[in-house]
Amino acid sequence: MVAEPQLRAWAAAASVPDPEVPCVTVEDLGILRWVRMDGEVAVAGVTPTYSGCPAVLAIEFAVEAALRDAGFEARIERVMTPPWTTDWVTPEGREKLRAYGIAPPAETSGSKMALFGETAVACPRCASERTERLSEFGSTACKAQYRCIACGEPFDYFKCI
């Protein structure tokens, strides 16, 4: 059974929004790996979406601040293995991305077609798969820029990793 302080610590850390995609939390993205108690210290394991992610320090500081705001002494541990994958984005996170106007990863990270950018990407606004990639990079390195041919709207696609 998980102790009450650990549950409170998890809830505090899990509520932190991603600084680059604020519609989703670190829990939604699957980058909050665990929270455990080490005596009186809440220790959170965080895996960056990729090793060069410019937001990793901001995320770690925000998780630490959320734990401190919840009344805990806090420590963050960066967890690099196994590496993060878009498979860890929760179903709720995928829906939040779609509602925000970002197409969630369309295939699992193990898909050879997805690795080479040959994935059919559905428009998050009208659900049409009649879309085209405009740029391999969108507003952040983990997103690509697409346009829907059916409705004409541009949108970001959260790339499979």
Automatic annotation (TrEMBL):
InterPro entries registered for this protein in UniProt: Fe-S_Maturation_MIP18 (IPR052339), FSCA_dom_sf (IPR034904), MIP18-like (IPR002744), PaaD-like (IPR011883), Zn_ribbon_PaaD (IPR056572)
Protein name: 1,2-phenylacetyl-CoA epoxidase subunit PaaD
Domain MIP18 family-like: 11-69
Gene3D superfamilies: Fe-S cluster assembly (FSCA) (3.30.300.130)
Entry-linked Pfam families: FeS_assembly_P, Zn_ribbon_PaaD
Domain (PaaD zinc beta ribbon) ranges: 111-159
Signal peptide (from-to): none
